Amino acid sequence: MNQDYIKPDNWSIIEEGFDAESVKSSESLFSIGNGAMGQRANFEESYTGKTFQGSYIAGIYYPDKTKVGWWKNGYPEYFAKVLNAPNWIGIDIEINGENLDMNACTEVTDFRRELNMKEGWYNRSFKAKLKNGTEIAVNVTRFLSITLDEVGIINYEITPLNKDAKIVYKPYIDAGVTNEDANWDEKFWEPLEVKHIGNEAFVTAQTFKTHFKVTTFMHNSVLENDRNLNLSPTNFDTSADKIQSSYAVIVAQGKKSSIQKIGGYTVSLNHANTLTAAEKVIQSALAKGYDQLLQDQIDAWAKIWEMSDITIDGDVKAQQGIRFNIFQLNQTYLGKDSRLNIGPKGFTGEKYGGSTYWDTEAYCIPFYMATKDQEVARNLLTYRYNQLDKAIENAEKNLGFKDGAALYPMVTMNGEECHNEWEITHEEIHRNGAIAFAIFNYHRFTGDYSYIPEKGLEVLIGIARFWHQRANFSKDKNQYVILGVTGPNEYENNINNNFYTNYIAKWCIDYTYEQIKKVSLEFPSDHKRIIEKVKLAEAELQEWKKVADNMYFPKSEELGVYLQQDGFLDKDLVPVKDLDPSQRPINQKWSWDRVLRSPYIKQADVLQCFYFFEEHFSKEELKRNFEFYESFTVHESSLSPCVHSIQAAALDKMDMAYTFYLRTSRLDLDDYNKEVEEGCHITSMAGTWMSIVEGFGGMRVKNNALHFSPKIPKEWKAYSFKINFRGQILKVDINHSETAFSVDGTEELTIVVNNNAVVVSPYNTVTVK
Amino acid sequence: MNQDYIKPDNWSIIEEGFDAESVKSSESLFSIGNGAMGQRANFEESYTGKTFQGSYIAGIYYPDKTKVGWWKNGYPEYFAKVLNAPNWIGIDIEINGENLDMNACTEVTDFRRELNMKEGWYNRSFKAKLKNGTEIAVNVTRFLSITLDEVGIINYEITPLNKDAKIVYKPYIDAGVTNEDANWDEKFWEPLEVKHIGNEAFVTAQTFKTHFKVTTFMHNSVLENDRNLNLSPTNFDTSADKIQSSYAVIVAQGKKSSIQKIGGYTVSLNHANTLTAAEKVIQSALAKGYDQLLQDQIDAWAKIWEMSDITIDGDVKAQQGIRFNIFQLNQTYLGKDSRLNIGPKGFTGEKYGGSTYWDTEAYCIPFYMATKDQEVARNLLTYRYNQLDKAIENAEKNLGFKDGAALYPMVTMNGEECHNEWEITHEEIHRNGAIAFAIFNYHRFTGDYSYIPEKGLEVLIGIARFWHQRANFSKDKNQYVILGVTGPNEYENNINNNFYTNYIAKWCIDYTYEQIKKVSLEFPSDHKRIIEKVKLAEAELQEWKKVADNMYFPKSEELGVYLQQDGFLDKDLVPVKDLDPSQRPINQKWSWDRVLRSPYIKQADVLQCFYFFEEHFSKEELKRNFEFYESFTVHESSLSPCVHSIQAAALDKMDMAYTFYLRTSRLDLDDYNKEVEEGCHITSMAGTWMSIVEGFGGMRVKNNALHFSPKIPKEWKAYSFKINFRGQILKVDINHSETAFSVDGTEELTIVVNNNAVVVSPYNTVTVK
């Protein structure tokens, strides 16, 4: 943990001073993205120190051949990998004949990075003394345009400080890139064509196997004191997969020289001819020019913040942390394209193949629903609808289900499973439940029922069929059981009757049954179309209901808690507080069998059920289960603290709630797990948002209304957040004495605060003590 | 399954006719070995068809770097692999300028292989017409000497049939060999020295990492009509890792030419200077000459058969099957060296790294005890004693145990774990029980208690400590439980309270406790030495006893059976007979999760307990448990049928017993699983022996006496076997009307037949109706 490395600031992430050992971590933290592409904060110029190069294009992946020690039936043969894309940011720089490389300079001073989250740009500046004695000042600004989302731009400025300098700028595009994490040292990119005209250059390459075609492009302008010199390149070096141009200038001491490089990708997902498209994209960018592109960027981010900002008064680190989380979520996914989803590392690293986990439904959708237009959450639901056929195929071909039962993959890019550990891939089936729950949650929050007859019902039917077939009747218990699963707590494998799984299975069937009935009454033509398509007879429905109505739930009457699984009470129930701290984290200190037979819990499991279905249980039940299970929870998943924080707040355990909140909000900025160099924990960032809004703010949606029960950690003076509820933006300002509600819109909004209805009218802040 | 491919014969394995598609399978079936080395039946001359090259040296292995998809704490970094050793059998042959290659001949006729099990040699003969029109007859005999166990010999005869022939023999040694099954395409052998003198040549190489040094040698003599021509090689071709000499002869039509090649290995495990040793070994072999070496071989095998033969009258395929099993077991392990053990593929293939599984203790030791001198079984026990330190280290460093608790590896070569699936490696801990049971079984059978105070007690204490620490107290059950294990039925993983594991855990503690008390009384100085060495206090013993005395065993009072594990009765209990045959074998047709939640059993689990501890249970209990569990058993392990065969015989289900017997005895000869090309199933062959002796013959050892309850399958006329019991060889002849007992020795032997004592005197066959 490095709590003091990143400088506290309300709106920016700031690093000061050059530390070669921190380069890889900072490359993650200062990553930029615009939903369509993203990149780690690699240096533009050459760097021979330790670095982890990464540029990523949304939706572009490669099926890496599966590598396992022992093959188990049902494993997929390929694993869709996040792919390191061709590099367009590179600019080699020669200063008086010497290649600029911070790792080789005799001195580097005044090094500073800033990621300006308010305006959406990344800046790096430093002074360097080269071996040849030339001293220079460098200032580089880079951003990926949100308005022109195939374009990024770099403004690279050099000022010779102690003498005149001959500067040669050598910007390049390189498709000869590899992944750090690949199973078989295969090449992923096949170069197709290299082309240049004037200041423009293009490398077209396609991925092996998946055949995504990508044109990576650049356009370069060299300026002196911000005046375009209209230089043409003196030279082009080309190879099969790389092109590099050269611009030479003589710069007087103290004068500022710069190169502006426009770059990016056009991809065959969006264009029939990626090369022509790239030429057009460059023209659009040039027509705007650097200053206008930057202003557009600032405006676009202002709009994003307008809807999604959270302010925290009196705690700059907490303020910086929550904004970093909101910023990264928006860099990763903007919701424009239902083919995309939210990868666990976003565009900040390549670890974990695939882009989509149940994190999206369980943790991310609430954030996007409340901070974007409803179309964004609907696109995330549609993503699963579009992959329904593959989920059915997966259940049938790999796992032996039938008649349209669907099991969504644990991890996916294109609908196919991307993970190979039987205990996860084949047994962590509760993910299917979260996908159904998200449909319910979307309707609950937005009030938009149309998604269900249009698309959602088919997904629900596939999922309900899966649960019906997956449960079996236990003669011994005279009830239905679900054997051999892994629950959300992945520190238990192949367990029987995981309470969470059994509960959500029953809920899925019941909810689907209700929706079928509702659609048949309210949308009869959709009902007819769907029932014919999926061949669903009333008799099958009655079979489902038998399972749902007779589902077994393990519990302890004595302790008054549901049991995480059968046999949980056989464990050696030593609470975490009595565990020798030298043994933690247990997933690093203990062999896997020891983790499994211990009572320790990685992330909310029974409590995840209480989170999703809070209103099904009494507060007393929540309290007993929370106190029992939290005492065994080691929170070794970044997704763990948020649910506990929300529940602790609901139970008036505000100190505990605040401690949990702190654990996530600066997880990456303070590098708690010493792994941020691999990339940031994007999906858990949505949990941080939930901790504030649902936890401290106590926001819920019940009966088509927003409910709040505002609380505030004693460490803060005040905080505020905004909720986009059914087209109106509600702003909530909370301090220690009162909460103020105001609405941005033209209609009044009735909310419920601490169980009392409150009418919030436009232009009229309502204060509740 | 290819039931008619191998010709039925009482004493030989015979293949007739050349089938290129069967070459790899026959290479396995016709493998030869002498306990110290072994080799697949690869052709000596060039062969461009499909082949799987394999020569193996006992005790020589390579630590292959572990390859897994997802690393789990506690996995070993390396995996000891059976290593393909340098090839010394190769002889390239030129006939009138054309290289002999059966795959390139215009015609191959009269192809025949014979593995003569009675005499221990392998012969191959064929006629071939080469592209150049020359027709030849070839006859090759090869064996690995049992008396000089570093030596093998080949007599390769060629007779030109239709014209005179210029024959060039080009025998070679090649250390440039690789494994088919390796994780990282690494080279395993580093060549050190190549040397030749006269007709002798030597290649010395060492394994990377393990640094076993091996000199592979050859000596060649060329003969005409069995007369040594005393030729010297005309040429030597050498490279860094290969040497090849040439001998040219002109052979008249109809005359027989031959080359005799002596070859083999001297290894640094046995010699300080392997090169000098190789020179001496060649001299010893030459001093004997081919004919005497062959006669010694015949004599040595006669001695082996004298003690271990089983005859079956009236069923030649069953006769051939059981002899093949006994022959292969003796080829694999002769018990001379306590550093060696019985690999699952013996010297017939390289699949599965490591050499030692719990198969040795559970299945092989009974065979070796009854068919060899007791020293052999004692060597197998000593193998584990010598690896005790590593078992303690494994438990401590990898798995978090302490104070001298020992967990033996699932698979090992040198005491270190060679397997990486957490559900097996870390959870299939019952193996520790079999290792303790073998100590008990050795004493029960041989009456030799000395092993326990000398060595066995330390092993028992390490194992008892493991069980004591591995169990935990369940407040819920108010008993000790063992959570998170895999039982002998590997179709269940991470289960709680596997009956077999809990039972053997309790038994290990109780047995160890008794032995400590006995040794303290009868061998006080050993007791003192051991207790001081292992630091065992009486208080710790009392803690052990608490666990043993309060161990929990799952059972169903209603069904009158012990439960394989907690929750077994929750399964969908469809017996195997009602399972759609298209779904079998389930381990090939079903995904792993489906296998796990099914009730289907791979091999005896609860019934393994009834096998080991038969006298602890009533026949009625055996019957109920057998009938319940066998109905769910799919027998998808080669180790499964034997235990069931023995129990079916005990329950007078002779048809069932015979069916189980058939399943194993010709498993490889008839290639039931279509995988014999990978090698033979060596360890399960001991189970076949058990099926006859303990199953049909009903042999048990109780109170220092052999007990029998002879039965005979209706398909046989008669059968006989021999038991080496405490220095006397008892022969048992069983037919449908009576059983005859005779003893080879000077003292009378009291046995118990169908619960009646019978005295068998030397030179006096006793017959029991």
Automatic annotation (TrEMBL), chains A, B:
Gene Ontology MF, one: alpha,alpha-trehalose phosphorylase activity
Domain Glycoside hydrolase family 65 N-terminal: start-end pairs: 14-268
Glycoside hydrolase family 65 central catalytic domain boundaries: 323-690
Domain of life the protein comes from: Bacteria
Family (UniProt): Belongs to the glycosyl hydrolase 65 family.
Active site: 490
PANTHER family linked: GLYCOSYL HYDROLASE-RELATED (PTHR11051), MALTOSE PHOSPHORYLASE (PTHR11051:SF14)
Protein name, as recorded: Maltose phosphorylase / Trehalose phosphorylase
